[in-house]
Specification:
This protein is of the alpha+beta class and about 500 residues long. It folds into 4 domains: about 160 residues, Methyltransferase, Cobalt-precorrin-4 Transmethylase, Domain 2, CATH 3.30.950; about 70 residues, no CATH class; about 170 residues, Heat Shock Protein 90, CATH 3.30.565; about 80 residues, Arc Repressor Mutant, subunit A. It has 16 helices and 23 strands. The strands form 7 sheets. It has a 6-stranded mixed sheet, covered by helices on one side. Strands 1-2-7-6 form a 4-stranded mixed sheet. A hairpin with a 7-residue loop joins β14 and β15. α10 packs antiparallel against α12, α13 crosses α15 and α14 packs across α15. The longest helix has 17 residues. The N and C termini lie far apart (about 55 Å).
Length: about 500
């Protein structure tokens, strides 16, 4: 939207708030009172109250007389206020937990300055200011701990409110919805005829919960609608940091960046562009087949695709300031997303993922971007085995989940950890297909011949000794031995030992 459009929107929003019969739990009016401590407490109280009242935002407005709601103007200028040597807005942000989105807007109405503070509603847990939680009770700001019933209701709301139901943009006009969302991609990806009228388009988007009617007129664009079909994610302040970043490095470290690209489109409408952008910069190898040279990607395209989809749909959207990232080195590719997985990394392959964002995942399945629940990691491991690549690595670093694909390398260059990980994932893949790891199957996975049977047995023993796999029947003859992942071992004592 243009600056003029933003100003008109802000004037309209202030006037809608003035129409309220009195201050509410999610809206507060002031004239010149701009005490930083009190402002921070109001941010906490209004954010929590907005969640309690089902509102996308809470509002604090300076320049409006309490009671009459007349515009009287204010001398408060947030950009000029400091706490010590620190700017007010940054001081407030540093004092909040979690660091929710809020923004000061200055607008002139009837020749008088008005300052509007728009505050994102609380998600997941109550917002604290300087380690204290506040709430609005009627028109009064109180400590949340003094109202346990409100606190219980708030926690029940957090438990039931997924990210997709949040609001990315509020009170958007019909024509601006169509400017902000790539609606042709929606109909194309779902193979639905494009309605002939604007009304039909908006109704279809609303029926799929991508937009919803706003109380004060216009439309609210939901987080689901924006994250899937935004023409530019950067147009939505709340989710703009969720754009996917692709970084190509020189060598095997992050010291020198060759190229960095941001895919600013929604995950649905921009997915094929994202995959194409990755494939363009991925290293490739040349193979000779039937005397003809053929260029093949270093990493299987299907594996890359599945891991990128997983990173998008399983991320924790409530972690602010971070988004999915794809990093490409000479010897590996790392795909990471914000959030600790809800399933232990060692059980990725055999456990259907418990997604934080099931509505998002469902829409992406409908669009054919991802397939049935829980099949992605199976495909990734199978692809790395088929092309005899080192086994992928699944890990958690801080609040980030990361998957690493490694470039081809000979078995002689793999260390013990690499070999054991390959054995473990091979056993997992076999087990979910109701089969077992054997000397023969592992030789095939590692590209070894029958004469390397003794070497393969040594690799199996390494994995057994480290507790990653176990004999299915310890009494079987050596040549008949079959193995399963540790968690499928018949010997429960071994399982307990591994968990300890």
């Amino acid at each position: 939207m243009t600056t003029q459009r933003n100003e008109n929107y802000l004037i309209g929003l202030v006037n809608e708030l003035r129409k309220l019969p009195h201050e509410t739990e999610w809206a507060e009016f002031k004239v010149n009172n701009c005490n930083p401590q009190e402002t921070g407490e109001y941010i906490s109280a209004l954010s929590n109250a907005a969640a309690l009242n089902g509102k996308a935002f809470g509002y604090l407005v300076w320049g409006i007389e309490d009671g009459t709601h007349s515009i009287v103007g204010t001398n408060f200028s947030p950009g000029m206020n400091k706490v010590g040597n620190e700017e007010l807005e940054n001081w407030l942000l540093q004092s909040l937990s979690p660091r929710i989105n809020f923004h000061f807007y200055e607008v002139t109405i009837d020749g008088k300055r008005v300052v509007l503070l728009e505050i994102e509603r609380a998600f997941r847990h109550p917002v604290q200011f300087r380690n204290q939680e506040f709430i609005r009770v009627g028109t009064y700001k109180k400590k949340l701990k003094d109202f346990p019933e409100k606190e219980r209701i708030l926690w029940r709301i957090f438990d039931k409110t997924p990210f997709e139901d949040g609001i990315a943009a509020e009170r958007v006009l019909d024509e601006d919805v169509l400017k902000l969302l790539d609606y042709p991609a929606y109909f194309d990806l779902l193979d639905i005829p494009l309605p002939e009228s604007r009304k039909g388009i908006l109704e279809a988007l609303a029926n799929d919960e991508l937009i919803q009617r706003a109380d004060a007129g216009g439309w609210n664009i939901t987080n689901l609608g924006a994250i899937l079909f935004a023409r530019r994610l950067s147009n939505f302040r709340k989710i703009r940091r969720k754009a996917i970043r692709i970084i190509l490095y020189r060598g095997n470290s992050r010291i020198e960046t060759i190229k960095e690209q941001l895919i600013d489109k929604g995950y649905g409408s921009g997915f094929e562009e994202l995959i194409a952008s990755i494939n363009i910069i991925l290293p490739s190898n040349e193979e000779i087949q039937n005397a003809l040279r053929k260029t093949v990607p270093m990493f299987p395209e299907l594996a890359v695709r599945e891991l990128v989809v997983n990173a998008l749909i399983h991320q924790d959207f409530f972690l602010t300031g971070v988004g999915p990232m794809i990093e490409i080195f000479d010897d590996r590719m790392e795909i990471s997303n914000p959030g600790i997985p809800l399933v232990a990394t060692e059980r990725f392959l055999d456990t259907s993922p418990n997604s934080r964002n099931e509505t998002l995942a469902s829409h992406m399945r409908r669009m054919g971007i991802c397939e049935e629940r829980g099949s992605g990691i199976d495909k990734v491991v199978y692809q790395t085995e088929y092309y005899q690549l080192p086994a992928p690595l699944f890990e958690v670093a801080g609040e980030t989940t990361r998957v690493v694909l490694f470039s081809p390398q000979p078995l002689t260059r793999m260390d013990k950890v690499d070999r054991v990980r390959a054995c473990y994932l091979h056993a997992c893949l076999k087990y979910v297909n109701r089969e077992y790891l054997t000397n023969s199957s592992l030789r095939k996975r590692l590209g070894l011949t029958a004469k390397n049977s003794a070497t393969t047995s040594r690799f199996i023993k390494e994995a057994v000794d480290m507790g990653e796999i176990a004999p299915y029947d310890p009494t079987a003859a050596p040549k008949m031995m079959k193995y399963v992942p540790w968690w499928a071992a018949p010997d429960t004592e071994m399982l307990d030992e591994h968990l300890l």
